[in-house]
Amino acid sequence: MTPDQQSDQPPGQRLHDALQHTSARFGPHRADLVTLATARGRRLRLVRRAQLGAVTALVTVAGVLGAAQLHPRPATQPPAVTPTFSASATPSIPPTYSPTHPAASSVTPLAGGPRSGPLSAQLAAFLPPGTTTRLSSTGSFVNGRVTEGPPEDGPDTGKPAAGVVLYDDGKGPAVVDVSVLDSVLDAVGCGRTLPPLCEVLASGTAVNTDKLSLANGQLMWVATATRPDGRRVRVTAVNSDQGITDSGRPTRAEPPLTTDQLQAIALSPHWDRPTQ
Q1: In what order do the strands lie in the sheet with 198-200?
Q2: In this predicted structure, what is the pLDDT of residue 104?
Q3: What digits encode the pLDDT tens for the residues 105-117?
């Protein structure tokens, strides 16, 4: 239809023809159009729900984190463990030193016997009742004066005067000995030895006491008294009748004298230098 012909038609007819012309551009009617539209609407609703859920989760997490920052919880600590100790536990190896000896300041020095004769005999005069045999001495100690052997390491050192006895109090024979040495001024005091192994008395005498555990079950108790004038008196007792040797074996459970008895001998004025 030409434009001139269209202009001669009434307005209602032209509207009807235009609608028909527009509808002809669409394809034929589809029977599943409603079904497809319903499915599309369902998908859109699921997407919206998922988006809403994600936003809600993010808001919840942000709120929890913010609350944690405002009110931090204290860090958890492991439960405290209280250590327990067994009073019956003992070391498998006996200690070399024993700090259980009495303080030297509480020991009463013994008087001793005559200050002459063999040094072993002078030592025997200090011992409790028992059998004393096999006496031997080196050097001499007479009236507080020591005669030593030749110097070993220089003019201020020498071989001490010494006396050895084999003593038996009825529990087995054992060796007890004493040595007296002068000119040990560098050894005056306790040095690096701390209490209770060493004690300096009011007189200035340093008393050192040791309990030694040696090979083959051999034990040695030692008491050393070093006077301020440099005189050192050392008294030892062992639990063997041969002294301390590599092949020695105990002849009794412990030495025959206790550490306080050894201190009483070492601190005796019997060993002091002669008064001028």
Answers
A1: 131-138, 161-168, 173-181, 232-238, 219-226, 206-213, 198-200
A2: 64
A3: 678 899 888 889 9
At 137 the pLDDT is: 92
Question: Rounded distance, CA 101 to CA 131, Å?
Answer: 26
Does pTM surpass 0.90?
Answer: no
Query: Are 184 and 176 a contacting pair, CB within 8 Å?
Result: no
Q: Tell me which residue has tokens 């108790």.
A: 221
- Which range among 83-87, 110-114, 157-161, 249-253 has the greatest average pLDDT? 249-253
Report pLDDT digits (tens) over 156-187. Answer: 456 789 999 999 999 999 999 999 998 666 65
Give the closest residue to 101 by CA, choosing from 195, 169, 192, 201: 195
Domain ranges of the chain: 34-72, 104-271
**35: pLDDT strictly greater than 70:** no
pLDDT the model gives residue 264: 96
